[in-house]
Amino acid sequence: MKAKHLEKALMQFAEEGAAKVFKPMIGTGFIVGVVGPLQFEVLASRIELEYGLPVGMEPSQFTSARWVTGEQDKTDTFAQSNKQHIATDNDGDMVFLTRLQWDIDRVVRDYPDIRLTATKEMMV
Prior knowledge:
Layout lengths: L1 H15 L3 E5 L6 E3 L3 H15 L12 E6 L2 H10 L4 E3 L5 E5 L2 H10 L4 E3 L7
Antiparallel strand pairs: 1-2, 1-4, 3-5, 3-6, 4-5
């Protein structure tokens, strides 16, 4: 029950723009992205106050995210080859989670039909 409430809280904060929430292709948890460490504290405090849920956060190996675009067959192949780096955001769009610039450079070199963008185009 608490897991459902936590997911609801995280999705609400993602919709507000307070955080980015990623669901990894492998695993069962969520990865929460914010601009800095203070935002993690604010987010945890809000979840505890507004939802009554205790929050514990652990650092992730990833340091940035890139949204993935391209033809469906190309993105599917890319995702299958890079499962440990693939997640979806709260809108269901594919994201490549990175540790190093080297990861991004490798994708650009090895997957010329895939585009990685640091920001996501939003429709209003």
